[in-house]
Amino acid sequence: MDKDKPTMSTHFVLHRNLRSKVSVLPRTLRIVILGQAAVGKTAMVVRFITRRYIGEYDPTLETIYKHEVCIAGDVLHLEILDTAGQDEDALQIEEKIKWGDCFLVLYSVTDRCSFNEVMRLCFLVNHIHASSSGGRRGGAGAADQPPPIMVVANKKDLECDRMVSQQEGEGLARALKLSFREISVRDGLDETAAVFHALCGQIPQQADSSSSSSALSRRRVVSKLIEKIPRIPSGPPQYPGWQL
Ligand SMILES: Nc1nc2c(ncn2[C@@H]2O[C@H](COP(=O)(O)OP(=O)(O)OP(=O)(O)O)[C@@H](O)[C@H]2O)c(=O)[nH]1
């Protein structure tokens, strides 16, 4: 492998020779990034896809990023919805949650309000997914399970401004029975990539989430709204303010 090649991570890059060894059909996995404004949602997605760190704050208009990864020999097409942290109406957030297969709920360790919002967002995700799977019981497959959610604490590099301890974050995630990571998107490229890796690893192997009946019915409902969100194709878009 060419060490000098500007790729995002050796664990995640899909090389041509690897592609030929993969036996299963690629699956599409939709990840929704939730969290209050300025917690680092856009910085995290862009860091994961391009390795670059955005040092400037530009409030997000919703964007869907597309990216391809190979995890444990399984090719995944990722569609990552970077939501706007600004207030939005309940219907909009519901549509986005219905669109997703799995979720990263972010807060900043320097912002207690963003931490306080985590529990509400996690309950919302579980509630909306439970309702949209039609209350079916006893069915097989991932549609009846709560969707994978990971709680992510960002900006741990800002120790002097810390308002939420790591123990508090771990305690909340434990109470919600969710996985938890504390990271610095600014300082930690590998730990940022590991968040996505771990989330993808929580998806049941047998579940082709892009074609299950409940996923399809959810998506019919939300497709009109989501089509309005700009899509960023693979490859690094150029923004001012990016640093390596
Ligand atoms: N120190 C530090 N700053 C960070 C880190 N991650 C993101 N930031 C900064 O936090 C600010 C907000 O980051 P964004 O990624 O725009 O936040 P967002 O959650 O997408 O915000 P909205 O678009 O309003 O929802 C930017 O100035 C980033 O550079 C980090 O790990 N450490």
The helix/strand class is alpha/beta
Q: Gyration radius, to the nearest Å?
A: 17 Å
Strand order across the largest sheet: 7-6-5-1-4-3-8
Q: Could you describe the largest sheet, including whether it forms a barrel?
A: 7 strands, mixed
Which percent bin holds the helix content?
Answer: 25-40%
- Arithmetic mean of pLDDT: 78
Order of helices and strands: HEHEEEHEHEHEHHEE
What overall geometry do the principal axes of the alpha carbons give? globular
Describe the structure.
It is a single chain. Helices cover 34% and strands 20% of the residues. It has 244 residues and is an alpha/beta fold. Helix 3 packs across helix 7. The longest helix is centred in the middle third of the chain and has 21 residues, at 112-132. The protein is globular, with a radius of gyration of 17 Å. Guanosine-5'-triphosphate (GTP) is lined by residues 35, 37-43, 54-57, 59-60, 84-86, 154-155, 157-158, 184-186.
